[in-house]
Design a protein that fits this description.
It holds the Pfam family YGR210-like_G4. InterPro entries: Beta-grasp_dom_sf (IPR012675), G_OBG (IPR031167), GTP-bd (IPR006073), P-loop_NTPase (IPR027417), TGS (IPR004095), TGS-like (IPR012676), YGR210-like_G4 (IPR013646). One of its GO terms (cellular component) is cytoplasm. Strand 8 and strand 9 form a beta hairpin. The protein contains 13 helices and 14 strands. 42% of the residues are buried. The model has no long low-confidence stretch (mean pLDDT 93). By secondary structure, it is α/β, with parallel strands linked by helices. The strands form three sheets. Strands 1, 2, 3, 4, 5, 6 and 7 form a seven-stranded mixed beta sheet that branches. A five-stranded mixed beta sheet has the order 11-10-14-12-13. The two termini are 26 Å apart. The structure holds guanosine-5'-triphosphate and magnesium ion.
Length: 402
Amino acid sequence: MGVQVGIVGKPNVGKSTFFAAATLSPVETADYPFTTVDPNQGVAHVRTECPCKAFGVECQPRNSSCIDGNRFVPVELIDVAGLVPGAHEGRGLGNKFLDDLRQASVLIHVVDVSGSTDEEGRPCDPGTREPAEDVRFLERELDEWIAGILRRDWDRTAKRASLEKIPAAEVLRERLAGIGVSASDVESAMERAEVPSDLTKWSDEDIRRFAREVRRVNKPMVIAANKIDVECAEENLKRLEEEVEYPVVPTCAEAELALRRAADQGLIRYLPGDSDFEILQEEKLSDEQLQALEFIREKVLKRWGSTGVQEALNRAVFDVAKMIVVYPVENENKLSDSEGRVLPDALLLPEGTMVRELAYNIHTEIGESFNRAILVKPDGSREVVGEDHELEHGDVVKIQTS
Ligand SMILES: Nc1nc2c(ncn2[C@@H]2O[C@H](COP(=O)(O)OP(=O)(O)OP(=O)(O)O)[C@@H](O)[C@H]2O)c(=O)[nH]1
Ligand SMILES: [Mg+2]
């Protein structure tokens, strides 16, 4: 079980650079459209405060890592080919690769906020392209993609459902199961789109409206306003924030990539999401490299607080996909597993997950023999809770079985 985050956007905005910075995997990036054809898949991390700090213990993470009290919890990241207007009609590389986003629970839409790439990703003068238009077109393409899935064989399916008295929601859910749409997603989308309950009465406009609502519940979005380091970006950012309904995070993917690579080689000390870095091996850095680092410090970190890449991931997973991190332990005194590893696992779970579901998540047997759970607090106190208790972000929890 894991969370999948999809990176989307038109060509040449920095999707692969963002991906490379977040996963440290070598991928192709270049200043022309359609550099990426096949999707890149990798592991990125969300950053959260590790309980080891508050508890004053030394942790031994197993499924994640902890650096200076910051827990980095893995999520799956997918970088797909650029999308151009009309992709749903087969333009550019078409939207076949949107199928790679089927299982994504949240999207990071990378936008060139400097406005220096046209609607198809060709370089143009900075400030020429209005970033908000990129957001509108991407919404439209995603909507058409979902509508296209719905329209396949619509008339026959609708008639059959009506004859056999199969509820519309059931038919729609089945149809959209492939893109990870749940029954409750379908119901809330039907309600919001105000569509007829009889599928034979749907117009094409109904399909479209419904598709839009499905996209809004099933593929929620964070905008990474990338290339924030370029002239004009700041003005564009303000307008973009006013015009769209999504969280907007200013990013400089290129800076993040440079910092992470330098940190990886031990040249600097830097953690993703940090607001500054420290040079460790000045003698190994060329003058150009030192200048580039200084540029990043002045123009990106000091101005924006961070490169934004970590923040975009965190907002996508925590704020938009609404996930929490929970730390199950077997020994509530040592905060360890049976092998004595302290705070070994950090689990990403949907907000509202109950203790019982966590128990099943760890093991079916543990779920079946669940007795009660103990929440361990940093001040040494304990709280005993039953199976219906909702877990909270950062909880350290011991499941007791009978
Ligand atoms: N100034 C600036 N340039 C950036 C930034 N991020 C990426 N770029 C540049 O933008 C160009 C496109 O980057 P890619 O990561 O290949 O873009 P992409 O969206 O994956 O492009 P396609 O695969 O063609 O769709 C490259 O020249 C990058 O170096 C940034 O934060 N600032
Ligand atoms: Mg790419």
